[in-house]
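Structure tokens please, single chain.
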Amino acid sequence: MSRGPKVPPKAILAVSIAAVSTASILIRMSSAHPLAIAAYRMIISTLILAPLLILGEPDGLRGLDRNLLLKLVGVGFFLALHFASWISSLSLTSVASSVVLVHLDPIIVASLSHLILGERMTRRMLLGIMMAISGAAIIALGDMGLGGANLQGDLLAFIGSLMLGLYILSGRRLRQSLSLLPYVVPVYATAAAILTLVCLIAGVPLIYQLREYIIFTAIALVPMIFGHTLYNWALRYLKASIVSTSLLGEPVGASILAFLILGERPTPPVLLGALITLIGIYICIRGAEN
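Here you go.
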């Protein structure tokens, strides 16, 4: 008989919400190229977790056949595109706009599940999707008046949400058959390799001052390992709907931190659009439970 976790999963989930809320603030503190930030985030995370897998779960590596590895590489590809687009968006638009738009992923997952997997979409889910899209449109229209760069940042954040949705959708079944480290390490390593290759091809600098490496390490430790990785851990013990709903805490936490630390005050259209979007996402997730 399998034993439950020693630490309450909801407590772990609360820690992960607080951790991921710091991502946009830490990224804004760095002066490095967005692609370099994304690459080092995944490189350092892989270097931290890989020894734990090799020393603690060597059997997990032996169980990865070629077919399974190819699937994990595909998941890593989506994760790399997610971070490349979302981190780039933070240099062009506000933290509030970026973190709200990138968390349209539950809407993406629900829509793709309906179109590709044939999963039933309830009326509440459809209502939530329409509300979330309306809120995102209000954010985009509000940012349009601030210049083309803001709108470009909104578009990149939306692309980030699409890639995040594909990442979650494609990795959902793999996580059910794989324990945490055998799943995340190959995925993170793939994303690290892809992002590093893109940096080299695009001529993005990868050598920085010590301060930048400290920030890169903080990004890898706090929002990645104590954020994203703990989310993956929680999925083993909590319903996916609970974990997905908890993601609504990140836009709120990140916007509060952006105001307190960066002095970034969201515009009224962004506040209105964010509220409508978050309510829409919540309705969609709750509708998926029925």
